[in-house]
Amino acid sequence: MSISGKIQAAPSGSRGFDADTVISTTVAQQFASQGYAFCIRYLSLGAGQDEGDLSSGEASDILASGLALMAVQHVEDPGWSPTQSAGQTHGQNAAANATSIELPPGMNLWCDLEGIAQNTSAQDVTNYCSAWYSAVSAAGYVPGLYVGANVVLSGQQLYDLPFQHYWQSCSEVPAIPERGYQMVQTLVPNPVNGIGIDSDVTQTDLLGGQALWLVSSV
């Protein structure tokens, strides 16, 4: 069973936020009243959703407040070493955790790529990302890639990955040739509505691609 909602392509110029804090109905309504259109919350890295990460109830509250929803998986601590095996495990966990909280197939789940150990080979990063993509895609979700600091890969190498949805972090990161980004993140230094957030704005990429979010069907 899935949360009652529908998948939509995110209109260009929509303003939203990502947060590593549970969003209450009251806070979600505050953001919606201030012109925010969407929220991005976290999936756990391990098997099963941890306390403080997105739950089915929180997802329903966010949608009922008038915000669209997407989900991003946590990343390992800085200095981690990606492998194909880890990519498969993390991707399977992302999909299983999304399913466990009733997120419907067809929406974007984002892989947070950042903080990779120095001297990691580009091939190891590519193998990790490709395995993550395959695991999430096999479950019916649409994989997206958040490009943070220290990803090792060049813009061309990022473009050559199987992903068709890219999210630009607030760090200095490579441009994605031919395609570009579908979301751009901006650092927000102070709390908003009592919680820490980063701001995100959607855009249509150079190939016409858009982020895919979940909205209330009511």
UniProtKB/TrEMBL annotation:
Limits of the Rv2525c-like glycoside hydrolase-like domain: 29-168
Taxon lineage: Bacteria, Pseudomonadati, Pseudomonadota, Gammaproteobacteria, Pseudomonadales
Region forming the signal peptide: none
Stored SUPFAM superfamilies: (Trans)glycosidases
Listed name of the protein: Rv2525c-like glycoside hydrolase-like domain-containing protein
InterPro entries recorded: GH, Rv2525c-like_Glyco_Hydro-like
Pfam families named in the record: Rv2525c_GlyHyd-like (PF08924)
